[in-house]
MarR-family transcriptional regulator
Amino acid sequence: MDFSKELKDLFFMQQAYATLFSVLNKIQFRGDVYFESLTSRQFMTMVAILHLPEEETTINNIAKKLGTSKQNANKLIGSIEKRGYLRTEPSKRDKRAVNVKITESGNQIMAECGEKAIYFMADLFKEFTTEELETLWNLLKKLYSFDGEEQDGFEETAPDFEIEQDRGALQTRALQEFAKSRLQKGDSE
Protein backbone atom coordinates (compact mmCIF):
# COMPACT_ATOMS: atom_id res chain seq x y z
CA MET A 1 0.00 0.00 0.00
CA ASP A 2 1.27 3.50 -0.89
CA PHE A 3 1.26 5.95 2.01
CA SER A 4 2.88 8.86 0.15
CA LYS A 5 -0.18 11.13 0.56
CA GLU A 6 -0.39 10.36 4.28
CA LEU A 7 3.35 11.00 4.71
CA LYS A 8 3.03 14.30 2.86
CA ASP A 9 0.02 15.29 4.99
CA LEU A 10 1.87 14.33 8.19
CA PHE A 11 4.89 16.39 7.06
CA PHE A 12 2.70 19.46 6.47
CA MET A 13 0.92 18.95 9.81
CA GLN A 14 4.26 18.80 11.64
CA GLN A 15 5.51 21.88 9.81
CA ALA A 16 2.27 23.79 10.48
CA TYR A 17 2.41 22.88 14.18
CA ALA A 18 6.08 23.86 14.55
CA THR A 19 5.55 27.09 12.61
CA LEU A 20 2.42 27.99 14.58
CA PHE A 21 4.30 27.41 17.83
CA SER A 22 7.18 29.66 16.71
CA VAL A 23 4.84 32.33 15.31
CA LEU A 24 2.85 32.50 18.55
CA ASN A 25 6.03 32.94 20.61
CA LYS A 26 7.34 35.62 18.23
CA ILE A 27 4.02 37.51 18.22
CA GLN A 28 3.83 37.37 22.01
CA PHE A 29 7.40 38.68 22.36
CA ARG A 30 6.85 41.50 19.85
CA GLY A 31 3.50 42.38 21.43
CA ASP A 32 5.21 42.70 24.81
CA VAL A 33 7.59 45.24 23.25
CA TYR A 34 4.75 47.20 21.60
CA PHE A 35 2.49 47.36 24.64
CA GLU A 36 5.29 48.27 27.09
CA SER A 37 2.98 48.64 30.12
CA LEU A 38 1.44 45.16 29.87
CA THR A 39 2.52 41.85 28.44
CA SER A 40 0.57 40.51 25.48
CA ARG A 41 -1.04 37.92 27.74
CA GLN A 42 -2.03 40.58 30.30
CA PHE A 43 -3.45 42.78 27.56
CA MET A 44 -5.53 39.91 26.13
CA THR A 45 -6.73 39.03 29.64
CA MET A 46 -8.10 42.54 30.03
CA VAL A 47 -9.60 42.40 26.52
CA ALA A 48 -11.34 39.16 27.54
CA ILE A 49 -12.80 40.89 30.61
CA LEU A 50 -14.10 43.72 28.43
CA HIS A 51 -15.82 41.16 26.17
CA LEU A 52 -17.76 39.56 29.01
CA PRO A 53 -20.98 40.85 30.57
CA GLU A 54 -20.20 42.69 33.83
CA GLU A 55 -21.64 40.02 36.15
CA GLU A 56 -19.99 37.17 34.22
CA THR A 57 -16.35 38.22 34.59
CA THR A 58 -15.45 35.16 36.64
CA ILE A 59 -12.05 33.51 36.42
CA ASN A 60 -13.66 30.48 34.73
CA ASN A 61 -15.29 32.65 32.04
CA ILE A 62 -12.10 34.63 31.46
CA ALA A 63 -10.12 31.39 31.15
CA LYS A 64 -12.65 30.03 28.65
CA LYS A 65 -12.50 33.22 26.59
CA LEU A 66 -8.69 32.98 26.51
CA GLY A 67 -8.65 29.24 25.78
CA THR A 68 -6.52 28.56 28.86
CA SER A 69 -6.83 26.89 32.25
CA LYS A 70 -8.41 28.46 35.32
CA GLN A 71 -4.99 28.28 37.02
CA ASN A 72 -3.31 30.22 34.18
CA ALA A 73 -6.07 32.83 34.15
CA ASN A 74 -5.86 33.18 37.93
CA LYS A 75 -2.09 33.74 37.72
CA LEU A 76 -2.51 36.37 34.99
CA ILE A 77 -5.28 38.14 36.89
CA GLY A 78 -3.17 38.13 40.06
CA SER A 79 -0.22 39.75 38.29
CA ILE A 80 -2.45 42.45 36.77
CA GLU A 81 -4.25 43.02 40.07
CA LYS A 82 -0.88 43.62 41.81
CA ARG A 83 -0.28 46.46 39.34
CA GLY A 84 -3.61 48.04 40.31
CA TYR A 85 -5.32 47.54 36.92
CA LEU A 86 -7.85 44.96 38.17
CA ARG A 87 -9.73 44.20 41.35
CA THR A 88 -11.73 41.16 42.37
CA GLU A 89 -14.99 41.14 44.27
CA PRO A 90 -17.42 38.41 45.30
CA SER A 91 -19.90 37.44 42.62
CA LYS A 92 -23.49 38.41 43.31
CA ARG A 93 -24.70 35.39 41.32
CA ASP A 94 -22.42 32.65 42.68
CA LYS A 95 -21.02 32.77 46.21
CA ARG A 96 -18.16 30.45 45.18
CA ALA A 97 -16.94 32.77 42.40
CA VAL A 98 -15.34 36.18 42.14
CA ASN A 99 -15.86 38.78 39.45
CA VAL A 100 -12.90 40.63 38.03
CA LYS A 101 -13.29 44.37 37.43
CA ILE A 102 -11.05 46.79 35.57
CA THR A 103 -10.02 49.75 37.72
CA GLU A 104 -9.76 53.38 36.62
CA SER A 105 -6.00 53.00 36.10
CA GLY A 106 -6.76 49.78 34.22
CA ASN A 107 -9.07 51.70 31.88
CA GLN A 108 -6.30 54.24 31.31
CA ILE A 109 -3.69 51.60 30.53
CA MET A 110 -6.13 49.81 28.20
CA ALA A 111 -6.72 53.03 26.27
CA GLU A 112 -2.95 53.44 25.94
CA CYS A 113 -2.38 49.83 24.94
CA GLY A 114 -5.44 49.87 22.66
CA GLU A 115 -3.82 52.56 20.55
CA LYS A 116 -0.54 50.63 20.50
CA ALA A 117 -2.48 47.50 19.48
CA ILE A 118 -3.66 49.29 16.33
CA TYR A 119 -0.06 49.98 15.33
CA PHE A 120 0.95 46.43 16.27
CA MET A 121 -1.84 44.92 14.15
CA ALA A 122 -0.91 47.18 11.22
CA ASP A 123 2.72 46.06 11.47
CA LEU A 124 1.92 42.41 12.12
CA PHE A 125 -0.53 42.01 9.23
CA LYS A 126 0.90 44.55 6.78
CA GLU A 127 1.47 41.90 4.08
CA PHE A 128 -2.07 40.49 4.27
CA THR A 129 -5.00 41.41 2.09
CA THR A 130 -8.47 41.64 3.61
CA GLU A 131 -9.35 38.30 2.00
CA GLU A 132 -6.22 36.66 3.43
CA LEU A 133 -7.04 38.01 6.89
CA GLU A 134 -10.53 36.57 6.68
CA THR A 135 -9.19 33.22 5.47
CA LEU A 136 -6.57 33.13 8.23
CA TRP A 137 -9.18 33.90 10.87
CA ASN A 138 -11.49 31.16 9.57
CA LEU A 139 -8.64 28.63 9.43
CA LEU A 140 -7.57 29.47 12.98
CA LYS A 141 -11.14 29.03 14.26
CA LYS A 142 -11.26 25.69 12.45
CA LEU A 143 -7.97 24.65 14.06
CA TYR A 144 -9.20 25.77 17.50
CA SER A 145 -12.20 23.45 17.23
CA PHE A 146 -10.10 20.32 16.55
CA ASP A 147 -11.46 18.80 19.78
CA GLY A 148 -15.08 19.73 19.10
CA GLU A 149 -15.03 22.85 21.28
CA GLU A 150 -15.85 26.07 19.49
CA GLN A 151 -13.87 29.18 20.32
CA ASP A 152 -15.64 31.67 22.55
CA GLY A 153 -14.19 34.50 20.52
CA PHE A 154 -13.99 38.22 20.63
CA GLU A 155 -16.43 38.96 17.80
CA GLU A 156 -18.82 40.92 19.95
CA THR A 157 -18.11 44.56 20.45
CA ALA A 158 -16.64 45.26 23.86
CA PRO A 159 -18.48 47.79 25.97
CA ASP A 160 -16.89 51.19 25.70
CA PHE A 161 -14.70 52.11 28.60
CA GLU A 162 -14.18 55.75 29.40
CA ILE A 163 -11.67 57.39 27.09
CA GLU A 164 -10.47 60.88 27.77
CA GLN A 165 -10.85 63.37 24.91
CA ASP A 166 -7.11 63.36 24.06
CA ARG A 167 -7.06 59.55 24.06
CA GLY A 168 -9.92 59.58 21.55
CA ALA A 169 -7.84 61.87 19.34
CA LEU A 170 -4.85 59.53 19.68
CA GLN A 171 -6.99 56.57 18.69
CA THR A 172 -8.34 58.46 15.67
CA ARG A 173 -4.79 59.30 14.59
CA ALA A 174 -3.74 55.66 15.04
CA LEU A 175 -6.68 54.49 12.93
CA GLN A 176 -5.80 57.01 10.22
CA GLU A 177 -2.22 55.65 10.16
CA PHE A 178 -3.60 52.12 10.07
CA ALA A 179 -5.86 52.97 7.11
CA LYS A 180 -2.94 54.64 5.34
CA SER A 181 -0.71 51.57 5.78
CA ARG A 182 -3.50 49.28 4.54
CA LEU A 183 -4.11 51.58 1.56
CA GLN A 184 -0.41 51.49 0.64
CA LYS A 185 -0.53 47.69 0.79
CA GLY A 186 -3.55 47.68 -1.53
CA ASP A 187 -1.80 50.04 -3.98
CA SER A 188 1.26 47.81 -4.25
CA GLU A 189 -0.73 44.79 -5.44
Remarks:
- The beta strands are 86-90, 98-102.
